[in-house]
Specification:
The protein is α+β, with helices and mostly antiparallel strands. The chain folds into 2 domains: 53-156, ABC-type transport auxiliary lipoprotein component (Rossmann fold, 3-Layer(aba) Sandwich); 160-420, 7 Propeller (Methylamine Dehydrogenase, Chain H), CATH 2.130.10. It has helices at 3-33, 53-70, 88-104; strands at 75-82, 108-109, 117-125, 129-137, 142-150, 164-174, 180-186, 191-197, 201-204, 207-210, 222-226, 232-236, 239-243, 249-251, 260-261, 267-268, 281-282, 289-290, 296-302, 305-311, 317-320, 326-330, 337-340, 348-353, 363-370, 373-376, 381-382, 387-392, 398-404, 411-420.
Length: 422
C-alpha cells in the first residue's frame, strides 16, 4: 500500500523537472526575441529577405521609431508609397522588410480599418540619398518619423560631384539702415519700383507709412513680402503691416504682438525688445509640438511634412525631425541661414553666414545636407562687412541679403543665388 504514494511522488518530481526545463528554454527564446535598441532587430522568418546593409539598418531604425510612436497600440495597418527611383522589386523587398521588423517588435499588421492605427511609409529621395518617412496616424494627431540612406556609388548621378558657387547681384545702396526690400520691374524692366522696410517706416513705391513701435530693439528684425499683384505685407518685431484695397498701409496695434508666419503652417512669437524668436509651433501640421528659441529657421519642405534647421541661442544650429530631439547639430555657423534649391543638384542646400560681429567682414557659405551631415560645397562668398539679414525668396531659388559695407558705411541690398560650377 506504500507503492501508490511513491509513484505519485516520483511522477511529481519528473513533472517539475520537465516544466522547469521547458520553462527555461521558453524564457531564453523570449529574451532572444526581444529587440535591443543598440542592434538591428533579429527576425526568425525563414523567408526573411536580404537587403543591402545600409538599407537593412535604415529599415530597422525606422521600425524602432514607428513602434515607439504607436505605443501602446498593438495592431496597425501598413502602406508603402514609392516616390523615388527604386524599381518595383526593390520597393516590394523594402515593404516586406518593414513588415518583418514591425512584427518582430510585437506589432500585428492588419488591413486599414476603423480602430487600427495606420502607418504610411513614403520612399522618396534626393540626388545623394534615399529619404524614408513614416506618418503614424493617431487618434489625437499624426506623428512623423524618418531616416535617410546614403546611396551607393552606382546609385548616385554625376550631379552630386558638382561644385556650387554662391553669386551676388548688388541692387541698391543707401545711407539709412533697412531690414528688408523688394524690387518690382515694370515697363519691360526700364523702371524699378522699390519697397523698403525700415525699423520705423515702410516705403512703398514712394509712399511712406510709419510703423509704431513700443518695444524697440537695438538689433531689430523685419521681413517683407510683396505679391505679384503688389499686395504688401511686413513684420517688424511684434508689429504686422499690410496694404489695404485702397493701397494704404495698415499696421497692427503695438499693444498686441503678432506672431510671425513661417513655411509649412508654422509660426512663432517674436521676443519683444530682443532679436530672436520664442520658438516655432504648429497646431495644424503633422510634426506637432514646439521647437526651441532661435535666431533664424531654414525649412526642408517635403510632400510628407516640413522639417527645420534652427540657429539657436547657444551658438549652434540643429536639425529637427521632431520637436522632442534634434537629429543633428552643426557648429561654426552664424545666426542667419536659409535653404535654397539649385537646378544642377536636387539635394538639400543651406546658405549660412559667418560668425563675426557688426565690426567684421562676413561671408555666405553653401552647404550640402546629406545623411544628417552638412558638407561645405565650393568657396564662400565674401562681403565687405556684416550680413544683417538673409531672407529666402518665395520660389526658394534665391535669397535677399541686407549687408553693410564697412568701407563706405552704406547699407546694401543684394540678391544671392547658387550656380553650378565655377
Amino acid at each position: 500500500m506504500q507503492l501508490l504514494p511513491r509513484l505519485f511522488f516520483l511522477r511529481a518530481i519528473v513533472s517539475i523537472f520537465i516544466f522547469a526545463t521547458v520553462g527555461s528554454t521558453l524564457s531564453s527564446q523570449t529574451l532572444a526575441q526581444q529587440p535591443s535598441q543598440q542592434t538591428p532587430i533579429e527576425t526568425e522568418d525563414e523567408n526573411a529577405i536580404q537587403l543591402k546593409t545600409t538599407w537593412d539598418k535604415a529599415v530597422s531604425a525606422l521600425a524602432y521609431k514607428i513602434a515607439a510612436a504607436v505605443k501602446p497600440a498593438k495592431t496597425v495597418s501598413l502602406e508603402v508609397k514609392n516616390k523615388s527611383s527604386l524599381d518595383a522589386e526593390s520597393v516590394a523587398s523594402v515593404r516586406k522588410a518593414f513588415t518583418q521588423y514591425l512584427v518582430a517588435l510585437h506589432l500585428k499588421i492588419e488591413p486599414d480599418v476603423s480602430g487600427v492605427r495606420h502607418i504610411e511609409i513614403t520612399l522618396s529621395e534626393s540626388n545623394s540619398e534615399y529619404v524614408w518617412v513614416a506618418e503614424v496616424g493617431l487618434a489625437e494627431s499624426e506623428q512623423v518619423v524618418m531616416v535617410s540612406v546614403r546611396k551607393e556609388n552606382n546609385d548616385v548621378s554625376n550631379a552630386t560631384n558638382v561644385t556650387l558657387t554662391v553669386q551676388r547681384n548688388l541692387l541698391k545702396t543707401q545711407n539709412a539702415p533697412f531690414l528688408d526690400f523688394s524690387k518690382h520691374d515694370v515697363s519691360a524692366g526700364r523702371v524699378s519700383l522699390w519697397t523698403i522696410l525700415e525699423a520705423g517706416e515702410l516705403k512703398n513705391y514712394g509712399d511712406v507709412a510709419p510703423i509704431p513701435q513700443i518695444h524697440v530693439s537695438r538689433d531689430p528684425r523685419g521681413r517683407l513680402s510683396v505679391s505679384e499683384a503688389g499686395q504688401v505685407e511686413a513684420q517688424v518685431g511684434g508689429i504686422r503691416c499690410a496694404s489695404t484695397a485702397g493701397g494704404l498701409i495698415d499696421c497692427s496695434s503695438p499693444d498686441s504682438s503678432q506672431n510671425w508666419a513661417f513655411a509649412g503652417g508654422w509660426e512663432s512669437a517674436y521676443v519683444l525688445g530682443r532679436n530672436y524668436f520664442a520658438g516655432l509651433t504648429s497646431d495644424t501640421t503633422r510634426l506637432t509640438g514646439n521647437l526651441p528659441q532661435f535666431f533664424s529657421a531654414a525649412p526642408l519642405v517635403l510632400d510628407h511634412g516640413t522639417f527645420w534647421i534652427l540657429t539657436e541661442l547657444d551658438g549652434k544650429a540643429r536639425f529637427y525631425e521632431s520637436p522632442a530631439n534634434s537629429a543633428a547639430t552643426f557648429s561654426g555657423w552664424g545666426d542667419d541661414i536659409a535653404t535654397i534649391t539649385t537646378t544642377c543638384d536636387p539635394g538639400w542646400h543651406v546658405l549660412v553666414t559667418g560668425t563675426g560681429d557688426w565690426t567684421q567682414r562676413d561671408q555666405i557659405q553653401v552647404y550640402d545636407l546629406k545623411n544628417h551631415q552638412a558638407l561645405a560645397n565650393g568657396p564662400p562668398l565674401e562681403f565687405s562687412g556684416p550680413v544683417l539679414a538673409l531672407w529666402p525668396s518665395e520660389d526658394g531659388k534665391t535669397v535677399r541679403v541686407v549687408s553693410r559695407n564697412l568701407q563706405t558705411g552704406k547699407y546694401e541690398a543684394s540678391i544671392v543665388s547658387v550656380s553650378c560650377g565655377d
